[in-house]
Amino acid sequence: MRRTWAVFGASSIMLAAALAGCSSGSETPSITVFAAASLKPAFTEIAEQFKTDHPGMDVDFNFAGSSDLATQLTQGAGADVFASANTAQMNKVAQAGLLDGPAVPFATNTLVIVTRPGNPDAVHSFADLTRPGLIVVVCQPPVPCGAATRKVADSLGVTLEPLSEESDVTDVLNKVITGQADAGVVYRTDAINAGDKVTTVEFPQAAEAVNTYPIALLSGAPQAGPARAFIELVTGEAGQKVLDAAGFGKP
């Protein structure tokens, strides 16, 4: 009997040592956050604060157009947190039964026009985007920035004929920065982040198409506890300070 227990005890010690060895070589635990492309600079900064507050926990981001993210989630992609650039895409995820609790509004964003540096084509209004020969890019209609752009165009009774409709706002901005387009419609935050790589043109009708950003915990989140802490950071004083500095408005 003593020998049996001795063998069992030795085996247990060996198993514990093996598990410890596996644990020490495993990847750092992380939360997965699906977030609108326009949130990348701000959320990347907020993630650094999160990792400081939660040593040993990392943040993996999937930044893309909110409509693409919503589609990925409803088709089975796994994540802990979803932050959308408008309520419509969050509602799609909610209607699929994928939220663990209500979504919380945490920011707003407003459209602006960006042009090549110095605004050489003299774009001064949204209607100027319809000028013949002007190369314009916008977001696809399902994407929040595209839906807002369409709303402005409809309110003015104008029809845009863009060179392309991009899947997220970052691609619109990059096409203007790289000279592939003369002008594009993006968020204020994207224009601020681009700095002197573009010239920003504001237009009054943007006030009629302000997007509200909601954030939510996803049902079945593998890291629900840390994910809740990330959401609290985003919606709390520290996160709001970062978002304000990036050009986002209050929800």
Q: Name the CATH superfamily classification of the largest domain.
A: Periplasmic binding protein-like II
Strand order of the largest sheet: 2-1-3-10-4
DSSP, total strands:
10
Strand content: 15-25%
What is the level 1 CATH name of the largest domain?
A: Alpha Beta
Helix content: 40-55%
Write down the overall mean pLDDT. 91
CATH topology group of the largest domain: D-Maltodextrin-Binding Protein, domain 2
Q: What Rg is obtained from the alpha carbons, in whole angstroms? A: 23 Å
The biggest sheet amounts to:
5 strands, mixed
Structural class: alpha/beta
Individual helix count:
9
Q: Would you identify the CATH architecture of the largest domain?
A: 3-Layer(aba) Sandwich
Shape: globular
Count up the domains: 2
Organism: [Mycobacterium] crassicus
Pfam family, one: SBP_bac_11
Protein name: Molybdate ABC transporter substrate-binding protein
Keywords: Metal-binding, Signal
Core attributes:
251 residues, D-Maltodextrin-Binding Protein, domain 2, five-stranded mixed β-sheet, 10 strands, 42% helix, globular
